[in-house]
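User: Assemble these into one structure.

Assistant: Restating your components, then the assembled model:
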Amino acid sequence: MTVSALTRPGERDRLIVKIGEIDWIFCLTLCLIAGAGAVMLFSIAGSSWTPWAGAHLARFALFFAIMIVLSLIDLRVWFALAYPIYGVGLLLLIAVLLVGHHALGATRWLQAGPIKIQPSDIMKIGMVLALARFYHGLSGKSAQLSWWLLVPAVLILAPVALVYKQPDLGTAIVMLLTGAIVVILAGLSWRLIAAGVLGVVLMIPPVVMFALHGYQKARLTTFLDPQADPSGAGYHNLQSAIAIGSGGLLGKGYGLGSQSQLNFLPEKQTDFIFATLAEEFGFVGCVAILVLYAAVIFMALRTAYLSHSHFGRLAAAGVTATFGLYVLINGSMVMGLAPVVGVPMPLLSYGGTVMLTVMVGFGLVMAVRVHRYSEITSGKGSLL
Amino acid sequence: MAEPSIFFAEVNERQGVFHRRAFLLGGFAGVGLVALGAQLAHLQLLETQRYTKLSASNQFNFKMTPPPRGLIVDRNGVVLASNRPNFRLMVSKDKGVDPRATLKTLAEFVPLDDNRQTRLLKDISNAPRKSPVQIMEDMSWEQFSAINIRAPELPGVTADMGEVRVYPYGGAFAHVIGYVAKVNKTDLTPTGPNADPILLNPGFRIGRQGVEQAFDLDLRGKPGAQKVEVDANGHEVATDPAGDIKAIPGKEIVLTLDADIQNRAMEVFGEQSGAAVMMDCRTGDILCMYSGPSFDANKFVRGLTGTEYKELASYDHKPLFNKALTANYPPGSTFKTMVALACLENGYDPATVHVCGKAWPWGGRVWHCDKAHGALDLKGGIAQSCDIYFYQAALTVGPDKIAKVARAFGLGEEFDIGIPGQKKGLVPDTAYKRRAFPKDPVWHPGETPSMGIGQGYTHLNPLQLCVQCSRLANGRKALHPRLIHSIGGVEQPSGAAFGDLPFDDKHIDFIRGAMAAVTVSGTGTGLSDMGLGDIKMAGKSGTAQAFNYTAGHGGQKGATGEWKNRDHAWFIAFAPVDEPRYAVSVLVEHGGFGASTSGPLARELLRVALLKDPEIRAKVEHPLPIPQAPTVNTDPDVVDPPTPAAAAVQTATQAIT
């Protein structure tokens, strides 16, 4: 197979061409979202760059650079490193359970000198890479229905189980759904999909009864009836709804959101930043941000669509799925459509690890775009 | 080379499946985002008003501001009960507040021993979230400022300035005015005025006795509210004065009392147990209503300690009772005025003479008098307070006619003076005997002589005796006592708005004449001179047995011995004799002989009242000439100092006014 007919062989490997191939509109959209996040963080800190807005922008700048660098890495390198990254991620997840840093009742970090590593974030990318790598070498028939499917099942469930154990329900759900989406995109038979959906539905009652932690159950019940205990467990849902609802069409004005400024809104700088935006900028501001998110999702998905390699397709789509799930889950949670599960709004929320994951993921998506004509010769065992 | 693992066609097929499914995924994402948008529209466009309200109720709190309690003043505007600033310290339960640690820290600034800390901890944990519990009040300015400076480091702690009731005269008015005290659970009602949430405000106090209790709602006023912006922890961020609702202060209550007379009553009673009531016998206004010994109402505002309360409650002089209304004792010889009037009204000839030989055998027993008075007519009988005369006088009219006269003079009656707690006592008659003694329903003739000298079943309180004396002195009107002059500027009905007494003026004049004789040549000889020249006092003494000591000796026996066995000393009096203005009744419990113990007290109180009466003052005062200061002055810059004499007169005048 050949590359584009309009380009001489080797031309696409030139750095300047690669940079030109990056989707700069996509990058601009990311900047807009992160910028909106900084604007909100500036407001809720009482018109101050500290403690959040400045750090948010600085991180974004750094991660943006990382994304650009990653997008220039040949897709075959990504392909080759897929399993090793997954392996390292899995080991780190196990290490976290054994020696991890304990914070807020959960063990999610590894401390290495000044650097805090949250292995679940590495794993979000690692799992997508590993699945894409595996399906790249699998025949379409096998991807539909075969014993080979036990491999992706293990690839997904092992890290999900470890993350769930931390406990980090939000991330576990995102990973599980991301994995499921990749498996489905790879061509899982509709019958199996239907059976899976049925299985999940049947599993909900026993999981709720036995497998969820007390606080997780409380979040679920308050989601179903947030008014029941407005100052207790339902507080988050209710205050968030108040912040959004009181914003109205045009918002209360920049810096004037009483819910966030007076601390009624919990976690206002992280999980609930969308609610502060809704309060100060109203329906108009919210729709604008949602349009930006939609644009990111569709541009990323289009990249997957255009890739010539199955690995590139599935990897880009997997990252897009993760991102989209974050947006949808956080949005639902903040608006009272889903229980509070501790999932941030990517790029808008303050917090380094999620932003790093997302930007590394988009680095991969951009790499897929830049190298969309690359041919990865074979599936099994190919190491460049 | 092995067969390629993936064929071209299959690769295309994989791509096709992916493309279709990616398209589907994009669709799902789109649906999800649209759903979010729809929910946003629901919250922000459809329900925005509801959430705006909720947001405002989060953001703003209305902090209740207690209204200033209404003042209580005397007839001349002298303040008897007002409010003073009060520095309070409060702690509220809230997120991130550890009350135990907070109290420990506070104990460094204000005295809080371990017991008190334990008790307060319980109060705090029982209180609803964010509702403050009062830790201390009446902090000094130093304590207040020390805590206020550290307030930011002490979450949940507030130090503010409230108001607390103060009674400038301490004890003199304690029984009439009562006091305010902290609200307890039994005060709270689910409906009505005591359902007002202001009662839950820390430091709020409710009227407990006397005027404070009876007019609590008038004095209370209406609470206002202060609009404050608060953050999620309930900390005040800002105030919004434009949103404040002003508190409506309580109404001012003007009493008919005169602070000077009342204070003088407290002075002259000293530690003696008893009561004095004085009325203006032209209007019915109560000028003085004192019960002694009294207590400091301010201590009740603060809250008594257990020991303090025990001391007051167990003291045999019973300082907690308002004896002016509750002390029910036989009126003794003061009642002879009623017996005499009953006789006159029923055709008794005042010239009728009985001879007193200290003992009088009648009805199978011997009746005694304190001494042998010899031959007396009715006037002499009253003046000398001869029991033997009145045994016989009473027998000529019988109990029912005496009781009818006594009741017309307000004896045994409960008056509406605004404050609760009167014990109306009893004026007996044959109907009473039938009612109360079913086993022995007959009024025995032997019971009449006792009634004739104000003993036996007859029990009356000092207010009634004052009313009786006022009506005698007034000679016409069935005056009623009035204690509350006005409430919030609305004058209360006068005590003079009542009909005339159904008695012959001449008969009442006769009684008054006899009372004038009492203080000139009778039992109260010497009491007529009040030190006010021609202004003289008339009165009637009374000595009531405190217990039934063996008959055979007169009242003098009851004037000595153990305090609790001594007789009760009564005196009723009015002045001036010729044109009565003020009437007083004085009771000294276990005071011994009425004329010698209570008489001088009655005279002193009347004297103060008369001195405050400008018309009387004009009569008794004779301005003395002041020598003209020499006007020859060579140096115009030197101003002559006022002569010492002139200055003294000026000061004296000021002192009296």
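Chain A has one domain: 12-139+150-183+200-370.
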